[in-house]
Amino acid sequence: MNLEEFKQLIEKSEKCPDFLPLSLQGLWYDKKYGWDEAHTFIGDADDSDTAWVHAYLHRREGDLNNARYWYNRSGKPESKVSLDEEWNDIASQLLKKVK
Questions:
Q1: Contacts of 81 (CB under 8 A, 6+ apart)
Q2: pLDDT tens across 40-60, in order?
Q3: Which end of the chain has fewer CB atoms at under 10 Å, N or C?
Q4: What is the DSSP letter of 79?
């Protein structure tokens, strides 16, 4: 699945597909239902990919200290691009891991 297919899936589906990894499900919820839904969904998952999504969510929220904590846990540098660009970057990279 590529980025455009993922975006179409979000647009067309009311329910997040459970075949997606937790990190991509977090991005799905963010785009479809917003920050609260996404943040509640990913909770305190401790894998690096989900931590990356968690960092993005806190950056989106404006809580940069919390975002930095999650960027550190993810092993990714703090993003300086627009939130839309970051969402696209994260989704694109995570989608490459989906078999």
A1: 89
A2: 989 878 899 999 999 999 999
A3: C
A4: P
Q: Which residue has the tokens 């995570």?
A: 94
Residue 14 DSSP code = S
Give the tokens for residue 23. Answer: 């990190």
Tokens of 33: 């239902």
Tokens of 49: 């990919």
- Tens digits of residue pLDDT in 68-94: 999 999 999 999 999 999 999 999 999
pTM of the model: 0.94
CB atoms within 10 A of CB 45: 15
* Alpha-carbon span 79 to 19, nearest angstrom: 28
Distance of CA 8 to the CA centre of its chain: 16
